[in-house]
Amino acid sequence: MKKILCFLIILISCVNQSFTIAQGTATSNKQLDPALRKFVQSEIMIKFKDLKREAENSVSSFKSEMNNYKPDQIQKVKTGYDKTADRFNQELENMKMDFLNKKKLKYIIEFPKDYARSLELNFRELAQYYAENFQQPLQDVRQSKEDGGIVIAIFMELFKLVPEVINHFNEMKEMATRYDDAYLDKWLVTPFKFLTWTEIQAEAGYINMNNTNNFYNNGLNTNPNSYPAMPDPNTAYPPVTNQPANAGMDTTKTNTQHWWETNSTLPVPTNVDGSAPVKNTNVKSTPVKTKAPDPFAPSPVQKDTSKLKPSSVKVN
Amino acid sequence: MKKGISYIIPIFIFLLTNPFVGFTQKREKMDGALRAFIETPFMQKFKDLRLESENLVLTFKENKQNYSAANINRVKTAYQKTVDKFNAQLLDIKADFMNERKLQYIQDFPEDYTSGLTSDINDLTSFYQSNLQLTIQDVTDATVDGNSLLTLVAELAKLVPGMVTSISELRSSVKKFEDTYLEEKLIGPYKFKTWEEITY
């Protein structure tokens, strides 16, 4: 009798578990609801994405000229970028957590000014962090006089747009109770998340396979002494013609795909003659990422989501 | 009959004094809670800021014979605009103390309130720099630089987390404060004086 009871308890818990998982999958596969769509398509999120693109483009360009720099200089930029990307991604996570916290949502609606001010400070701190930890080391290493004007301008616009966020929270108030972690991960975090250094490839058109600093490109090489302390003076640098034809252009749009479809600044690498490169087993290939959802896709014909039973989508 | 009266009188006295006892207890609770808040480094610094700004105005007023009426007016306007901002901040804090829901919010999400307040203080710093400090430096040819005040405002932002912790703690003893009480204990002693009020 006891055995049967134990078996029943285990069976019930198993069924319950798989039901929860199934519910989670169902929720995360749900279409983007209109309120969240409006938010991810809002000006502020577009600016956030612009920042992501600028940062990733800077890394991409830097990687294509990496053999001009010493390992410690590369490390400096790499660390700076990764730290900065972490900060931005943390902010996205925080936003996601706010959507998931019913109590917090209630307060945001009740005291919008407080939340807007707090968000503004976070963005200002991010701007400062970006300038100090990524932009400055990059300029120092490149001995560049670029002032990062574009990024500053984007940040300034971002600050101005903060109060708008509250309106979106207000609109999402009802639907937000049905959002779960996986759903927000899919629609809010993944499309806007900053890639890590290793996920970003060098600028298209020229990939220097002799680059002794590939250690920084892949993360597979565990030998920190594999690159010379000084750049090799005999290194043959590519002629100007090897530079990508689209230098200076937005390389995030490739293969007629939109940047949000690739969720990456990674252009499709080609050889000098335009042919596809031979797969280099020493270089870690770009991680095959799950295609980021397209929050900018035209709104599908929506069913009246308010009529959905919460139990059908909610994960507990 | 006498027995009846002897029962009624103490009850009557109790009923009469009870609201007063309640009031005294409430007042004591508010006193204790607010004292802890007022003693936070943030509020101490806020008071220093007030005193330093008055000192700045006094120093300027002492030498006002050296400046044209137009320049005096420029400094006066810049001062008044700046202190209005600081006083508005103080009034915002007072309003939060009177709002039971807001106090609950601060207790539940202190980080958010801290960030919001820090953001406000940073704005005050910028406002001071671009208004009062710039004007007074311009008018006095930087004889009065206003840097001491700037240092104080900048330090104020760093003290916000401690101040917010104090608000969270006081909520456990007082649910909300009364307007007249806060006017007397918080606004009165900490409010920045007007230009005319600053005299020897």
What does this protein structure show overall?
Chain A has helices at residues 2-28, 34-40, 43-64, 71-100, 102-110, 112-142, 149-176, 181-189, 215-218, 259-262, 310-313. With 316 residues, chain A is mainly alpha-helical. In chain A, helix 4 packs antiparallel against helix 6 (112-142), helix 4 (71-100) crosses helix 8 and helix 6 packs antiparallel against helix 7. Chain A has one domain (32-221, 242-313). The model of chain A is unreliable at 19-27, 205-290 and 300-316 (pLDDT under 50). The radius of gyration of chain A is 23 Å and the shape is globular. Chain A is built from 11 helices and no strands. Chain B is elongated, with a radius of gyration of 23 Å. Chain B has 200 residues and is an all-alpha fold. In chain B, 82% of the residues lie in helices and 0% in strands. The termini of chain B are far apart. In chain B, helix 2 (41-62) packs antiparallel against helix 6 (147-158) and helix 5 runs antiparallel to helix 6. The interface between A and B is medium-sized, with 16 and 16 residues.
Number of domains of chain B: 1
The H/E string of chain B reads HHHHHHHH
Total number of β-strand segments of chain B?
A: 0
Estimated share of beta-strand residues of chain B = under 5%
Radius of gyration of chain B: 23 Å
Overall pLDDT score of chain B: 88
| Largest contact between chains | A-B, 16 and 16 residues
For the terminal residues of chain A, how far apart are their CA atoms? 32 Å
Class based on secondary structure composition and strand pairing of chain A: mainly alpha
Could you give a short account of the major beta sheet of chain A? none
Number of domains of chain A: 1
Q: What is Rg of chain A?
A: 23 Å
Mean pLDDT of chain A: 67
Sketch the topology of chain A as an H/E string, one letter per element. HHHHHHHHHHH
Separation, N- and C-terminal Cα atoms of chain B:
68 Å
Low-confidence stretches of chain B: none
Biggest sheet character of chain B: none
